Amino acid sequence: MRVLLVEDDLSLASGLESALGREGFAVNHVARGRDALAALRAESHDTVILDLGLPDMDGLQVLAELRAAGDRTPVLLLTARGEADDKVVGLDRGADDYLAKPFDMQELAARLRVIARRLSTTASNRVIVGAVALDSAAHSVTVDGAPVQLPRREYMLLKALMENAGKVLTRSTLENHLYSWGEEVSSNALEVHIHHLRRKLPEGFIRTVRGIGYSIALT
Fold first, then answer.
1. Exposure of 108 by Cβ count < 10 A (0-12 exposed, 13-18 middle, 19+ buried)?
2. Same-domain pairing of 18 and 109
3. Helical ranges in the chain per DSSP H
4. Which among 3, 206, 191 is positioned nearest to 112, based on CA atoms?
5. Beta bridge partners of 135
6. Keyword Transcription, does the record have it (predicted)?
7. How far apart are CA 216 and CA 206, in angstroms?
8. Which of 165, 141, 153, 160 is nearest to 195 (CA)?
9. How do residues 5-40 score in pLDDT, each as one tens digit?
10. Between 20 and 30 A from 171 (CA), which of 45, 79, 81, 129?
């Protein structure tokens, strides 16, 4: 899941990037509202985490401009404001959820997973394709009931493929799921992850579509 984090507190932003990265999210960060709007015009994201107290414009204004432009990307608001009115206005302007600072990092990750489920064709944390089961809440994978240990990137890659079983995901789409802005990515990094995954999964589970990308067949 690709997340755009809009937060001017650089210490908090750094902590969120690290914590959410460990939970399997690819996080891109901007500190200003105008930069957020420009980023969303340039590239698609699955979710926006939007702080209300930004230095150049109010987060509610960012949300209003986003929705006025027809962008329906889910938005989770972060606010240090205690007044209920701010939350109500945010939800009325098209926000999907909100959290008041300070908040628990695990709760934020759980709320992002709820948003991901809304976007997905699945209605639960578990995705099962053939002998392979992935549980996003437990961050676990099993093959024929036996647990399989996957590093973070391999887990993120498998999750993207399984949640889109039956579809072909392009190389660029998969790289966007795995890497945040500014990360150095070698030219064969994706192929290396696919190779390692295939060694741990049933034969033929991940299919190469030459010149396009990879897919998992619905079974």
1. buried
2. yes
3. 10-22, 33-42, 59-68, 84-92, 105-119, 152-163, 171-178, 189-200
4. 3
5. 126, 140
6. yes
7. 5
8. 153
9. 999 999 999 999 999 988 888 899 999 999 999 999
10. 129
Residues 76, 143: Cα–Cα separation, whole Å: 34
For 45, the token pair is 């994201």
- What domain range includes position 176? 126-216
| Average pLDDT score over the chain | 87
Residue-wise pLDDT for 86-106, tens only, equals 777 888 888 999 888 888 998
Which residue(s) pair with 2 in the sheet?
26
- Both tokens of 209, joined, read 């579509």
Instruction: Give the amino acid at 208.
Output: T
Q: What's the predicted TM-score (pTM) here?
A: 0.68
Predicted local distance difference test score (pLDDT) of residue 154: 92
Residue linked to tokens 């972060």: 78
DSSP class of residue 165? T
Strands of the sheet with 132-135, listed across from one edge: 126-129, 132-135, 140-143, 146-148
Structure tokens at 44: 């698609």
Q: Measure CA of the first residue to CA of the last residue in the chain; give whole Å.
A: 24
What token pair was written down for 189?
Answer: 């990094």
**Amino acid, single-letter form, for residue 136:** S
Q: Distance between CA atoms of 62 and 160, rounded to whole angstroms?
A: 29
The 3-state DSSP class for residue 43 equals coil
Which residue type sits at 52? Answer: L
142 vs 135: CA distance, rounded Å: 9
